[in-house]
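Bench notes, afternoon.
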Amino acid sequence: MRQTFLRTSGTAALVALALCATQPAAQARGIGVGGAVALGILGGVVAGSAIASANSGYYPGRQVYAAPAPYGACHFERRAYVDPYGYEHIQRVEVCE
């Protein structure tokens, strides 16, 4: 709602600026500086809105297809062992099947 209001009011302001900045038709000698500025701003708004609407925030992106783990893959396990002094330690051990 807010973006629509801002876009509409911005467009109305640019149209008003373009109409006020140009010379009357009876004295027109080309587009003039004001018209060129107004058209440049209007073109920038159009290009900016096209770029902004091209990237939708609702689309999560490309899907990633990862290959499944090969058969007999290795993994880590925690295993407890007792050292010669009688203390128990936990060690990560790689297990391959």
